[in-house]
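Students often ask why we bother encoding 3D structure as a string. The short answer is that it lets us treat folding as translation between two languages. Here is a chain of 129 residues written in the first language.
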Amino acid sequence: MDRSSSRLRALLFACVLLVSLPLAAADESNKWRLQFSGDADTDGEIELILQPKDGQGEHVVVTIPKGTGENRAAKLVVGAIRAKFGDAHIHAEVDDGEDVLIKSKRGTPDFNVVIERNTTGLRIRPDKE
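And here it is in the second language, the structure alphabet:
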């Protein structure tokens, strides 16, 4: 690959990133559902970022042991969110055993949930409610 095609690829990548930024900013909601499925294939971690609109993102890191099922993983994530935020601005609960509901309380800005890292083998699908 020559230099001009490398530069063109880098420029195209930068353009795609710039175009996608406004779309990411429109993803906030006051309520999220994280749907867990499967079992942890290995000891690992799940790192979530709760990013409020126009605010600093807060990282939540959850240690997940090998063999942890979806229901137990949901409970561990809820416990980590409650430990990080208390119950003042964000409420987290387990729903249907394998789902985690994360809600902003009145007066708290809408937020986005980003799965920054998942090294467990569990599948996680975030959905706005």
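Translate back mentally: The chain has two helices and seven strands. Keep this in mind for the problem set.
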